[in-house]
Amino acid sequence: MTDVKGAMVGGDRSLNPSQQEDPDLFVRVAERKPNGGIVLRGCKAHQTGNLNSHWMILMPGSKMEVADKDYAVSCAVPVDAPGITYIYGRQSCDLRAMEPGDIDQGNAKFGGQETMTIFEDVYVPPEYVFMDGEVDFTQRLVERFTAYHRRSYVCKAGLGDVMLGAAATVADYNGVAKASHIKDKLVEIAYLNENIAGTAMASSYGGKATPSGNFLPDVMMANICKHNVTKLPYEISRLAQDLAGGLIVTLPADKEFRNDVAGPLLEKYLKGKKGVTVENRRRILRLIENMTMGRNAVGYLSESLHGAGSPQAQRVLIQRLFDLENKKRLAKHLAGIVE
Ligand SMILES: Cc1cc2nc3c(=O)[nH]c(=O)nc-3n(C[C@H](O)[C@H](O)[C@H](O)COP(=O)(O)OP(=O)(O)OC[C@H]3O[C@@H](n4cnc5c(N)ncnc54)[C@H](O)[C@@H]3O)c2cc1C
């Protein structure tokens, strides 16, 4: 969905696709074939997981004007179609994956990746073209898609569950689990996290069937859920880092623990509570590091902020949907105001 919109090549966020100096800054139909097939040019930024998918579905990222007809395009493309180039994104601490051992990676099993996906004259046959030039439908398409997508940000509550577990574990290992402020901070993490889960579920419960039989989630609650996600994981991360202590950023590298001189010293001086191995203490600290500032902070924090639209995108929808006139009417009624 997300076009580069000119961040790299002197484009301008305030201009529509057709007003940009370079016509390729939003993905566009560069050519229409007599059989109804189309040829794409342009670049989508930040594409999560398309390298491990079979197909991608393209769609416009915003409402289009009549002049933007060539940019109102939605279609399906196999990821290995000729003319596509992927450029892999960098992630914080990514080179740790190339070091021996699995501790410093924090989460050696899972991670995500994003690519810039460049289309240079990619042919799409007519059966895979869903929208070509119907600018009137772009706003509704974007709004509906983002309602599903913003509601799907319940996934961050799953990550929040892991953060809660990690914060509680590190407190156990440090021998402070019984302190009242520690318990209270764990309650705060749970409270914040359930606000994400709850608004996502409310969006689904408020979903309505369309005439075609699809279900659309409640758009207001989907946007509230995503807006929670732009903020609450940052506070949850702060609390988890609070409980982890400074070792989260000063812990020596795994290879130091395998060093003949440093290893035994580290084992002696980094002991936690009795019965807890130094290795397990390191593992939980690295997991919190990984999720709050390492590779998985891409998914837990930055994607929470910008994915499915930066915070302002949700505020625009909330403002459009909050029916202020009705709320003013209720207040005036109770206040006995007659205008
Ligand atoms: C980790 C990650 C994964 C992602 N995965 C995907 C994916 O799989 N597929 C996909 O399509 N997208 C994906 N996105 C993209 C995401 O939807 C965008 O990052 C988001 O829409 C913001 O766009 P942008 O990054 O171009 O930032 P910008 O548009 O440059 O926004 C930066 C700031 O500028 C403001 N701004 C932007 N335009 C205007 C304007 N015209 N007027 C006033 N203010 C403006 C924004 O509100 C924001 O505060 C992903 C993003 C991240 C970070």
From TrEMBL:
The UniProt annotation puts the region (Disordered) at 1-21
Residue ranges of every copy of the HpaB/PvcC/4-BUDH N-terminal domain listed in the record: 10-131
Q: Does the keyword Ribosomal protein apply?
A: no
Span of domain HpaB/PvcC/4-BUDH C-terminal: 139-336
Question: Could you give a GO molecular-function term held by this entry?
Answer: oxidoreductase activity, acting on the CH-CH group of donors
Pfam families from the entry?
HpaB, HpaB_N
Alphabetically sorted, this entry's keywords are: FAD, Flavoprotein, Oxidoreductase
Write down the InterPro entries for this protein, in alphabetical order: Acyl-CoA_Oxase/DH_mid-dom_sf, AcylCo_DH-like_C, AcylCoA_DH/oxidase_NM_dom_sf, HpaB/PvcC/4-BUDH, HpaB/PvcC/4-BUDH_C, HpaB/PvcC/4-BUDH_N
Protein name, UniProt field: AbfD protein
Organism of origin is Symbiodinium natans
What gene is behind this protein?
A: abfD
